[in-house]
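Note to self: keep these together.
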Amino acid sequence: MKEANKKLRYIGITLLILIGFYIILPYIFMGPPTSFFSVYDGDETSHIVTIEIIDSNNKSIFENTYELSPQEKITESKGLWLLFKMSLPLHKENYTIKTTLENNVSKETSMSLNPWTALFISIIDSSTFIDASQV
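Structure:
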């Protein structure tokens, strides 16, 4: 019985070390995760923008409306569950980012996201521009 408990303890410690390396190592080399997205109003007028992010199963994972003044920037961080999902090694999910302005001008972009990908959404002349970049 003692031998079985000893083996289980070693297996548990080994698993914890492997999981620890899987979680900690990327943060050592890549740094902390970036923000989810930033919205910048580069226009000279205020705008109301709705941002919806949909996963590959057509399930909305984020939807919010912001009122931005001229030259204002809003940043939203990633939730813990989304960071965990994005960190999985087999996670190759595409997300659809849909932005809609108050005048019903919409733009959709589909892209893959990971913990170190940040979306930059700019409002210029009553239209939107979406860009994603990795650190």
